[in-house]
Amino acid sequence: MEKALNRQKVLLQHLVPSSSSSSESALSASICLAGDSAAYQRTASFGDDIVIVAAYRTALCKSKRGNFKDTFPDELLAPVLKAVVEKVNVNPSEVGDIVVGTVLAPGSQRASECRMAAFYAGFPETVPIRTVNRQCSSGLQAVADVAAGIRAGFYDIGIGAGLESMTANPMAWEGSINPKAQSFKQAQDCLLPMGVTSENVAHRFGVTRQEQDQAAVESHRKAAAATASGKFRDEIVPVVTKIVDPKTGEEKPITVSVDDGIRPNTTVADLAKLRAVFKKDGTTTAGNSSQVSDGAGAVLLMKRSLAMQKGLPILGVFRSFAAVGVDPAVMGVGPAVAIPAAVKSAGLEIEDIDLFEINEAFASQFVYCRKKLEIDPAKVNVNGGAMAIGHPLGATELFDCFCYRCPLCCNPIA
């Protein structure tokens, strides 16, 4: 009984900020409600919350074949940087830092491209920008870095962003490999192709081909339904660009505003016909793996008190963050350990969370993580995931911030 009462107390601390003057029911002033922040009066402690006030992304497009195949990376990032300040009437000069998660491009080149994008978007030279690389979690790490900077008092407003052009920068190892790695099993495993780690997950934890194919079908079904119902419409910034005919070289201007990798008619029977890619008699196929994609996204963060002062909408609260290492041979199981750590950091438990977003790099790791955490499938990736929408590495985890603008959600970020 005591444990239950303590949990209730923690939940109420997250969900019910106190008000010194409002006579409304406390529950009507949920801390996670999207809407007009000026409608509620907060105590100083809640004013210190780090909140997201704007979140925009590009459409996600298939690399080398999709609508962004002829778009430079800086031209993907610029529209979302511009949108997160312009849509909420924040002066770009007020931004204290921009952090961009990105994985594949050479560090100094990508940093310069990001700086160029900031200038295209109207930011003055006084606003700094940097990149961060935590592989597929880079976009989320960028948001966490900005939240930490604001909490530490380094600046008042920041942008966490993510960018990847897998057309311009495909996955490849550059340079030689240190022979010393041969003497360390875990070091060798760091060099495994990602698809091989997926096969390892399936084999080690007993995830069947049927389960993986079914997960892929569900991802496409949910993403198609979300698209059809307009759920993505407000978060996608149209990008005016060009596409080049590979045969004639003819350039055609286009505006891209819809994800182009979703296949609404995908069936388990169709996926069952595909051959395993990484291992003979394996279970990982092109159909139950994430798509290689191009895209970008950005979120604008500040303290709740400043958002209230400016009268800005509060889309969400950055509650907690966790990064936990795992065996590189099964690298995709990270969410199974990072999510509990983030939830615990927020003073909550798994069953307290309404909705989850788990990376769909491969169906094997997605299915394993969902089962390991004993999460109701109806709570996970409710609008589809990377198998359907796409997986631009440096930007993917940033899209967790877009997924749920639901008044009942209070999601620790993991």
From TrEMBL:
Keywords recorded for this protein, A-Z: Acyltransferase, Fatty acid metabolism, Lipid metabolism, Peroxisome, Transferase, Transit peptide
EC number: 2.3.1.16
Main location: other
Pathway: Lipid metabolism; fatty acid metabolism
Span of domain Thiolase N-terminal: 50-305
Cellular localization per UniProt: Peroxisome
An annotated Gene Ontology molecular function: acetyl-CoA C-acyltransferase activity
A single Gene Ontology CC term: peroxisome
GO biological process, one term: fatty acid beta-oxidation
Signal peptide limits: none
Tagged with keyword Hydrolase: no
InterPro entries from the UniProt entry: Thiolase (IPR002155), Thiolase-like (IPR016039), Thiolase-like_sf_Thiolase (IPR050215), Thiolase_acyl_enz_int_AS (IPR020615), Thiolase_C (IPR020617), Thiolase_N (IPR020616)
Stretches assigned to the Thiolase C-terminal domain: 313-396
Enzyme category, top tier: transferase
Annotated family: Belongs to the thiolase-like superfamily. Thiolase family.
UniProt name for this protein: acetyl-CoA C-acyltransferase
